[in-house]
Amino acid sequence: MISLNHMTLTLNAEKREKIGKLESLREAGFLPAVFYGHKKESTPIQIKKSEFLKAWRAAGESTVIKLVTPNGDLEALIHDVDIDPVTDEPRHADFYVFEKGHKVEISIPLEFEGISPAIKDLGGVLVKVLYEIKIEAEPSNLPHDLKVDISSLVGFQSQILAKDIKMPHGVELMENPEEVVAAVSEPKEEKEEEAAPVDLSQIEVEKKGKTDDGEAEGEAAKSE
C-alpha cells in the first residue's frame, strides 16, 4: 500500500528473514532494503518493488516516507538506492530513520518558476548556479522542493541569492545567505566569419609555372 497525503508517503515494510537469498526475493517482486538511524540499529526489511518505485518517483530523496513496520511506524528518508547497471532498476535501498523531536539538515531541490523580464524582453539566458539548497527542519516540515521565482531578474545585473528564497514555516536556511542561486547572462552575438582574402598574384604565378613547364616539355619532345 502506498498513499500520498500532503507529500507524506507511506510504505509497508516487512521484516526480512532470508538475509542471503536476495535473488529469489527479487523474483517474487520484492526489493531488499534496510533502515537505520542515530539510535536505530541496521534492520533488514523487504518492500514490494512496485510500491517502492512509486514512492521513489514521488518523493525522491528529500521527502519524508512513513515506514509501516511490524514494530511500529517510522519516519525516514530514502538515503541511498543501489541501481543495477544492466537493467537500470533499483536492487537495494537504504532508509535513514529520524530521531523523534530532532531536526534534520538536508539538501532540497530547487524548482524555478515565473517569467523573467530580462529573459523575455531582453533575450537574456537564465543561469542556474544552484540546483539544490541546504535547509534544516523537523521531518514533518520538510518540503518536497523549494520554489524560486525568477520574475525578479529584470536586468543583466540581477541575481537571486539564497536569502531571497522564501522558506516555508519551520524551515531554516543552512546555505550561505549570499550564495548566488540564479542570474541572467547577456545573449552572445554571433559574428559572421570573414572569408580569407585570395592572393590572385600567387594563383597566376602557379598557373604560369605550369604553362611554362608544359611548353618546355613540348619543345623537348619536338627536338628529340
Question: If you had to describe this structure to a student in words, what would you say it looks like?
Answer:
This protein is α+β, with helices and mostly antiparallel strands. The protein folds into 2 domains: 2-99, Ribosomal Protein L25, Chain P, CATH 2.40.240; 105-185, Beta Complex (RNA Polymerase Alpha Subunit, Chain A, domain 2), CATH 2.170.120. It contains 4 helices and 15 strands. Strands 1-2-6-7-8-4-5-3 form an 8-stranded mixed β-sheet. A hairpin with a 2-residue loop joins β4 (30-37) and β5 (40-48). The radius of gyration is 32 Å and the shape is elongated. It starts with a strand and ends with a helix. Mean pLDDT is 82; it is low at 1-6, 210-218 and 220-224.
Give the radius of gyration.
32 Å
Number of strands: 15
Q: How many structurally independent domains?
A: 2
Strand neighbour order, sheet with most strands: 1-2-6-7-8-4-5-3
Average pLDDT reading: 82
- CATH topology call of the largest domain: Ribosomal Protein L25, Chain P
Q: Name the CATH architecture of the largest domain.
A: Beta Barrel
Quick one: CATH superfamily of the largest domain?
A: Ribosomal Protein L25, Chain P
The sequence of SSEs as H and E is EEEHEEHEEEEHEEEEEEH
Low-confidence stretches: 1-6, 210-218, 220-224
Distance between the termini: 103 Å
Quickly name the level 1 CATH class of the largest domain: Mainly Beta
Helix-and-strand structural type:
alpha+beta
Number of helices in the DSSP assignment: 4
**Largest sheet composition:** 8 strands, mixed
Q: In which range does the helix fraction lie?
A: 10-25%
| Mass-distribution shape | elongated
Strand content: 35-45%
